């Protein structure tokens, strides 16, 4: 059966403030999509809402994976269902090593009925797999002994996210600005990692980015532009070129309603604008 992640008419509010106003997006197995949009347009809000973050309230619409409702599930249940999110700002977990975190996460995701306290994936098997994946990503083995994201450089955080992606083999992965802060070589290494993992596991990938550069390595077949809380343009790689050369002015002109909504969002984001 071909797997599908379906977002329909999704409305999301943060602290009572509407940010997403009816997002429709369908990701199928093995497809690579890009999501672009100006700062503050709600791209990370979409990823947090998909992750089930309690501050991001879904007020309308639905998110389903293979027809099963994801809304209302706990974050770990979403992961078990096959969803993976790499956040723009990954969380630091002092005291938990990357290896230990991964061993638990892999055990939970691969054996969804595993209860807390039951056996983890066998150490030998896990070690070998971790070593192989780290080699592929050009990561030093020592790195797995460090506390998760604690003192990681920007590039190390992003590489650690791709390592998680490689180990967890999700059906769908949302990568929020995985290219931000990466040097030119690192963008290539991380992108090649994403491509390899996606191909191997038929993962459907949604890459959130501002820049064309990562999309020259991770080649999206579908590009969506989020503006004013909705996806206003959909197309192929030509949309990326249009944004790169012309910015968002043409999007505003073509979608005046969305432009108004985007202005409202921006005004609301300013802390107590001078009145
Ligand atoms: N936890 C929060 N508390 C208050 N406001 C929030 C929160 N999360 C998001 N917002 C607001 O929602 C709007 C959308 O933010 P979001 O982070 O989703 O944008 P983005 O498209 O990811 O932007 P960027 O390209 O800068 O990453 C912004 O106005 C932001 O201030
Ligand atoms: Mg963001």
CATH superfamily (homologous) name: P-loop containing nucleotide triphosphate hydrolases
Architecture (CATH level 2) name = 3-Layer(aba) Sandwich
Q: What structural category do the secondary elements indicate?
A: alpha/beta
What would CATH call the class? Answer: Alpha Beta
Order of strands in the sheet with most strands:
6-9-10-3-11-12
CATH topology name, in short, is: Rossmann fold
- If helices are DSSP runs of H or I spanning 4 or more residues, what is the number of helices? 10
Radius of gyration: 19 Å
Q: Could you report the average pLDDT, rounded to the nearest whole number?
A: 92
State the distance separating the first and last CA atoms: 57 Å
Total discrete domains: 1
Range of strand content? 25-35%
- Strand tally: 12
Give a list of the ligands.
adenosine-5'-triphosphate, magnesium ion
**Principal-axes shape call:** globular
Summarize the structure in words:
The chain is α/β, with parallel strands linked by helices and 275 residues long. It has a single domain (4-268), classed as Rossmann fold. It has 10 helices and 12 strands. The chain has helices at 43-51, 75-81, 98-110, 123-136, 154-168, 184-201, 212-217, 238-246, 249-254, 256-269, and strands at 4-14, 17-28, 32-36, 56-65, 68-69, 83-86, 93-97, 147-148, 172-176, 204-208, 222-227, 230-235. The strands form 3 sheets. A 6-stranded mixed beta sheet has the order 6-9-10-3-11-12, sandwiched between helices. A 4-stranded antiparallel beta sheet has the order 2-1-4-5. It has a two-stranded antiparallel sheet with strand order 7-8. Helix 6 (184-201) links the parallel strand 9 (172-176) and strand 10 (204-208). The longest helix has 18 residues, at 184-201. The N and C termini lie far apart (57 Å). The model has no long low-confidence stretch (mean pLDDT 92). Bound molecules: adenosine-5'-triphosphate and magnesium ion. Magnesium ion (MG) binds at residues 43-44, 88, 176.
């Amino acid at each position: 059966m071909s797997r599908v992640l379906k977002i329909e008419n999704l409305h999301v509010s943060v602290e009572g403030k509407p940010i997403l106003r009816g997002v429709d997006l369908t990701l199928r197995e093995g497809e690579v999509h890009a999501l672009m949009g100006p700062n503050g347009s709600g791209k990370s809000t979409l990823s947090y809402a998909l992750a089930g973050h309690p501050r991001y309230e879904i007020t309308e619409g639905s998110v389903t994976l293979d027809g099963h409702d994801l809304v209302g599930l706990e974050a770990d249940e979403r992961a078990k269902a096959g969803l993976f999110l790499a956040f723009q700002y990954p969380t630091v977990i002092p005291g938990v090593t990357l290896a230990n975190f991964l061993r638990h996460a892999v055990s939970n995701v691969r054996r969804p009925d595993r209860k807390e306290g039951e056996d983890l994936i066998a150490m030998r098997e896990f070690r070998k797999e971790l070593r192989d994946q780290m080699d592929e990503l050009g990561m030093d083995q020592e790195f797995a002994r460090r506390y998760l994201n604690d003192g990681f450089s920007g590039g190390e955080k992003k590489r650690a996210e791709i390592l998680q992606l490689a180990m967890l083999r999700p059906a769908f992965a949302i990568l929020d600005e995985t290219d931000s802060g990466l040097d030119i070589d690192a963008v290539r290494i991380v992108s090649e990692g994403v491509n390899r993992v996606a191909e191997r596991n038929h993962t459907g990938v949604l890459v959130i980015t501002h820049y064309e550069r990562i999309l020259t390595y991770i080649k999206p077949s579908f590009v969506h532009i989020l503006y004013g809380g909705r996806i206003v343009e959909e197309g192929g790689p030509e949309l990326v070129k249009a944004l790169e050369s012309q910015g968002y002015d043409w999007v505003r002109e073509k979608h005046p309603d969305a432009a108004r909504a985007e202005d409202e969002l921006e005004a609301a984001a300013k802390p107590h604008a001078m009145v």
